[in-house]
Every structure is written in structure tokens, then in C-alpha cells.
Amino acid sequence: MEAVRLMMIVQSLWRKRASVALEEFRITLPQYLLIQLARRRGAIRPSEAAEELASDRPTITLVARKCIARGWLSRRGVKLDRRSHRLSLTGQGEELLDRIEAARALSPEVLGDPLDVLDSEERAQFLRALDKVQRRARDLF
User: Fold this and answer.
1) Which residues contact 29 (CB under 8 A, 6 or more apart)?
2) Can you spell out the DSSP letters for 48-84?
């Protein structure tokens, strides 16, 4: 479990730095990740978003409500199931993502890159191993 603990530390440190970088855009990291997912995937159910972002449904629901209130996402019902809905990126959300990307707010140049201590072969090997571990974790959990 030492490897998991170390990965959690790296992730926590990155999330803190990314959150600070996003402050000037008045968006939280979870909000950014959700609207980024809506851009990448198109209209998405909250349960799908929760699974893809490795979050729980109640948390995604709260994050989505805030994104809808800010005008970054819209909520549309599914015709066959009135209880179900999909989240879609709005024009305002698209513009925000464009501004964040143009500023390169989450780039390694701005945030730093903890993998820069690895040479290209070590990095490739590490990424392959990490991909393998993440696939196994999805199978287990």
C-alpha cells in the first residue's frame, strides 16, 4: 500500500497547485474537471460523470448544480425517463475552458512536472506501469 499512499500524496499536491491556478478564473478544480468532461464526451449523465471522474454521484450532483448556476453547463431531461437527465457544456462553459487553455493555467510549465526527474525511458515505463495499475484498480473497485 506504500505505492498507493505515494500516489495519493502526488495527486493531493497537484490538486492543491491546480486549484490555486484556477482561482483567477473563479472555478474550482472539480467544476473544471466536470465541464472539461462535458466538452470531451458531449451530453453526459451525472452517473457517467461520477464514474469517469472517480467521484460519487452526490458530489457530482452538487458540482453540477454550481456549474449550471454559473452558466457553464445546462441540464436536459431524457425523454423516456423523466428522472434522468444529461449535462451539456454551454457556450459560456466553452468560452471559460478556452480562456483557461489559452492561459495554459494547468500546463506543466505553470504547475510544474513531478515526472521531470525521470528520463524519457523511465517516464514511458512509469506511465505503462501506472496505466496497468489503474486498469486493475477499476477492475477491483
Assistant:
1) 15, 18, 19, 22
2) HHHHHTT--HHHHHHHHHHHHHTTSEEEEEETTEEEE
CB 50 within 8 A of CB 59: yes
Nearest by Cα to 105 from 27, 7, 9? 27
Dump pLDDT digits (tens) for 17-38: 999 999 999 999 999 999 999 9
Please answer whether residues 60 and 46 qualify as being in contact, where contact means their C-beta atoms are separated by less than 8 angstroms.
yes
The one-letter amino acid code at 96 reads L
| DSSP state, residue 118 | S
| Owner of C-alpha cell 510544474 | 112
How far from 34 is each of 15, 37, 86, 98, 114, CA to CA, in Å? 14, 5, 12, 15, 24
**Per-residue pLDDT, 5:** 95
How many CB atoms neighbour CB 64 within 10 A? 24
